[in-house]
Design goal:
By secondary structure, the protein is mainly beta. It has one helix spanning 107-110; strands at residues 4-7, 10-12, 18-24, 32-39, 46-51, 58-60, 68-73, 78-83, 92-100, 118-119, 123-127. It starts with a strand and ends with a strand.
Length: 129
């Protein structure tokens, strides 16, 4: 079992930056693929970025590519999401998600909500002037 706790959300002006963090419990963090999703009011939860257990495979949604960087620190049991050049349409609750790695982590798996077994409670990101 993995427990995930997100932090780092807040209010930021358009063009600004935020760094989200997700802290995971347990001693087997390095056996989990991780991802960030987001959900805006009235919309479905959507994929933002994913990273495999070793950090060697990274995937991004087209809507954030070039503005967002996902990273992980297996020694600290954390995964982070650096977001730059934020836009009002990035406003959403951001969720951290984990899945036990099967050794296969391709975009189609990374981007699917149903691929993940564990979810955090979410952190609100609001981009507004």
């Amino acid at each position: 079992q993995v427990q995930l706790v997100e932090s780092g959300g807040g209010l930021v002006q358009p063009g600004g930056s935020l760094r989200l963090s997700c802290a995971a419990s347990g001693r087997t963090f390095n056996t989990y693929d991780m991802a960030w999703f987001r959900q805006a009011p009235g919309k479905e939860r959507e994929f933002v970025a994913g990273i495999n257990w070793s950090g060697g495979r990274l995937y991004y949604a087209d809507s954030v590519k070039g503005r967002v960087t996902i990273s992980r620190d297996n020694a600290k049991n954390t995964v982070s999401l650096q977001m730059n050049s934020l836009k009002p349409e990035d406003t959403a609750v951001y969720y951290c998600a984990a899945r036990r790695s099967s050794g296969i982590f391709v975009y189609e798996i990374a981007a699917r909500v149903g691929s993940y077994d564990y979810w955090g409670q979410g952190t609100q990101v609001t981009v507004s002037s």
